[in-house]
């Protein structure tokens, strides 16, 4: 079932230079400088799930000493976990402003704020009280997280080191002033990516460069290979969070990492086959097959793996393609060329951003069919998660056409879930939405699509859907 939310206006998004899903070139725009590091302020005072006043808050007003913040389940949580947030000790019907903020690993600030009013007893529960404006409106218990925006334009949140948490500071201000100054209470909450008992194991086996995450317990566990888009490197945050839900997850790099190729002009499916066999044969992985999870370019790599390799049981793509994109793909003497594109079909928005959704050629027309992935050969079950406002490429079209190919060859109809007002970067829950970022291969800022509220709700639902799909088809006990 598609998740539907009312559209809301969103501000310009965030960027990460490392993620560029496909390679048409648009000349004339050059990224000139790396982001400037921002030094962190003095460490804030840490609170517990029942709240602690910081020195700054205590100094702000002696009358605020009775005000406290409460976080549940406690002073720390995983990034994909929902929280219960409440404020206690306010005056009856007191107007307050709540603000949440944190800095990423580059020192860049993310923040959100909302105006609230306490109830007749001086209590404020975000699960029941509507926000009266600010970064969002209405009853949104996690609104202070999913509505966060970067202070630096076009900056995308990426977690590189999953062994350290983000420190999220929540503040309560008196009144509804646009720039409130009177801090009544303040706590810091740790939002982590490596759950209790989850093991992180660097993998350097043969040519495979990856990190394996194992859940707590004796196992064996259902195994999943997690592959990101065309940005390169090794991203672990999705795999580490997924391992907390009972899966053995292999976060796989395929270029621009250690001794792997520096670019992705040519990829070899034998490398991915080696990764499949490594995971399948691991003593803590439950067979007989493994699952695949791929985003963007990683999505078409997963389709190619499922179509040509053995031991693939379940495949999930997040806004993937049905054609090989961005690189030549080799396998046992066979060569699949990348789908061509026409930069002339790139449109510029009134804000000066590139809209690249029409740039790729139609893979169903000759001579582009040479790039088409033969999904009809796959023995895997499929789940396609699609953002209907994806401006990177035509994800809905690719999912529907892949389904037609499978069914035309007698294969089971895949599950397709489409999310209205949802763009390209479908991340784990509560990640800030990335509607615009710099595309290193295109050479300019591009729009990815998505409306903040709807896209955020889609991320929550997609996370539930893919976990349920893998649990079902990988046979978790």
TrEMBL record:
Residues 268-475 form the BAAT/Acyl-CoA thioester hydrolase C-terminal domain. Pfam families: BAAT_C (PF08840), Bile_Hydr_Trans (PF04775). GO terms for biological process: acyl-CoA metabolic process; fatty acid metabolic process. Residues 80-205 form the Acyl-CoA thioester hydrolase/bile acid-CoA amino acid N-acetyltransferase domain. The active site is at residues 296, 390, 424. Belongs to the C/M/P thioester hydrolase family. This is Acyl-CoA thioesterase 6. It comes from Vombatus ursinus. The lineage of its organism: Eukaryota, Metazoa, Chordata, Craniata, Vertebrata.
